[in-house]
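Incident review: delayed structure delivery

Summary: a single-chain prediction request sat in the queue longer than the usual turnaround. Root cause was a stuck worker, restarted by the on-call engineer. No data loss occurred. The affected request and its eventual output are reproduced below so the record is complete for anyone auditing the incident later.

Affected input:
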Amino acid sequence: MDELEAVGDPDVRAAFLFARSSDHAVTADDLSESAGIHRNVARARLERLAAAGLLEIGYERRTGRTGPGSGRPAKTYAVVPELNAIQFPDRHYEDLFGLIIDALPERGRARRLRETGAAFADELADEVGLEAAPSLRAGVEAVCAAMRKLGYQVSVEDVGEDRAVIATPTCPLRPLVRRRPDAADIDRGMWAGLAARATSGVEVRDVQCETHDCLADHASCRVVLQLRPLA
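Output delivered after worker restart:
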């Protein structure tokens, strides 16, 4: 089974979106409870997604379970890094973006790409109603929650006084950045724009996308936000 065959089924696609909207690996019980379906049906849908290479199977012990089998590790399904956009037919959008980037003057290109990314962030923020939060941690968590609503798995890895780290195996612009690493400034502008919309009392000084992880096949992207309190 390939990716298109899996997500072409509305019920299986809904299961995939459920997994992507979670900040951790899900189980058949999680999907069963959320979708109101039998556990066996939930497991079958998750297994189809795993067979298509969209989810990765693992096992982990989860606390709070009681009854028969409560001591056994739970079978989990985690979203795998999304390296290419699922398209039918192939739209070649990454190639189109590459041509647009090449058409920009070299002088000021990075700034214009960041501005484009920030404008894209505003579109995403408006779609989910992202608003400023009262603290840095709450703001970063709000960014992650907003992206999960849009179908992208994003989670907070770390938050400090002037630094936050976001991890995402399904960054919206990852397929573009993998095809055109020089498009990374659009990605940085997007994350900076989202952070600016969700945080109050700080400004985003810099965004460091861990390019190595973005280009690695089996790793989540790590977005490092450098922050500075407003005077």
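Verification: The beta strands are 55-60, 74-79, 155-159, 163-168, 202-209, 221-229.
Action items: add queue-age alerting; document worker restart procedure.
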